[in-house]
Write the structure tokens for this entry.
Amino acid sequence: MKILIALLIFSVIIIVHELGHFLFAKMNGITVVEFSLGMGPRLLSHEWGGTRYSLKLLPFGGSCMMLGEDGEDEGEGTFGSKSVWARISVIAAGPIFNFILAFVLSIFIIGNIGYDEPIIRGVTEGLPAQAAGLRAGDRITKMNGKKIMLYREISNYGMFHSGETVVFEYERDGRTHTATVTPELTDSGYLYGVQGSVNIRKKTNPIETLRYSAHEVYYWIDVTLQSLKMLVTGGVTLDDMAGPVGVVDAIGDTYEASRQDGLLYVWLNLVNMAILLTANLGVMNLLPLPALDGGRLAFLIVEAIRGKKVNQELEARIHMTGLLLLMVLMVVVMFNDVRKILM
């Protein structure tokens, strides 16, 4: 069951991503040769309106294959025949649609159960927050100048800035105050000593729901970028990463843990997982790496600046090399996922 649920979530996210490329290609008069879900041999396919729609064997990935997108043809209806800004819009549309999907799903979550207020529910005796004067009921608004709108952002700031002194800006009785807190190193890591819960939610009006839904998307984008930064600097390791197998396992665990709370909470938790995944996919695809949308955008931006195209043969070789390295990384991560599950 968990595999079917995971495939459904992956499929929706990938279809939306490829739909972004597809719609903007059509809008710009680019011929879409094939729109597919999955990779490998075709299981089902149908040609309609000059485009072949396919379902493929391997249930990961998807594609929107455009005529001449690799630069081999620049005739009518080809990718290369369009202006550089038209091509940029087509490539950028995939990740942007992932963020739009995350926003729509966030509206469903926050509209149903609200958002986790950044309110302190208590302070731990003897830890720095208490000494700095923070107390239950304080609403955290900023940490070192970073705007805080969700309780999750408080603990995440501590994780991504471990050991750093933090200037808390907070509201109490309608007034704004500040407190400087240097976290204390304990057996559980660096702690401020503030207590709260991501499960205490506040429902709000429709306008605020839209506002907090947009911030929810920002939150997951920020978490992804901060996590990538820690990966580069050695703050996290390969064991902290999860590939498709690890994600399927996490989705299964989420499903099983939610079943006892009823169908609504199953849906809410799975939708929350989908928000994380689609925002993550959007960010990862915008990284300026060969074979990813971000890599292609990098070449197009260079073209826009130079006023002429980059050597197409060189670009194709770079993207092919990047694709091979990406496949190797996927295999390594997949084997690591299996190892962690079996341990």
User: Anything to note?
Assistant: The mean pLDDT is 86.
